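Researcher: Please predict.
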Amino acid sequence: EAAPSEVGLHSPTNTNQVDEVVVPPPTKPPTLEVKTINTGFNLTDFFPDADFEQYAQQVLEHLEENPTQVLTIYGHTDNVGEDDVNVWISLERANTLKNYFMEMGVKSEQLSVIAKGETEPKADNNTIEGRRQNRRIELKIQ
C-alpha cells in the first residue's frame, strides 16, 4: 500500500501533469499593403475618394492596434523642374497626407514623411503618362 503522501502522484487521472509546453513562434504585427496615390491634387488640396477614405480608416484602426508601427508617407515627383523644387513639392504633398491622417486621429509619432523628389521614378519621364505615374505618394506601414 502506498504512503499517503504518494497517493495520486502517478495515477492516470492526475490532470496536473504537463508533458510538453508549446510556445508559438513570435509573430510580427500584421501590416497593410503599400498604397500608391497618383497625385491629382495641388500641394495642399487633397480630396480623397471613397476607396481612399476606407483605406485611411483601416490605417487608423491598424495603427491604434499596433502602437509601435509607423505610417511612412513618401512623396515623389516627375523630373520636370529643378531638383530642389521637386523635393519641396514632394514634401508638401506628403505633408498634406500627414495632416489628413492627423485630422483622422492618427498620432503624430506614428507618422513619418520622406520627400523623394524625382529620385525614384517608377515610369519613363519622357512620356506624359510616365510623368503622371511618377507624381505620386506612397504609404507604407512598418
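Model: DSSP finds three helices and four strands in the chain.
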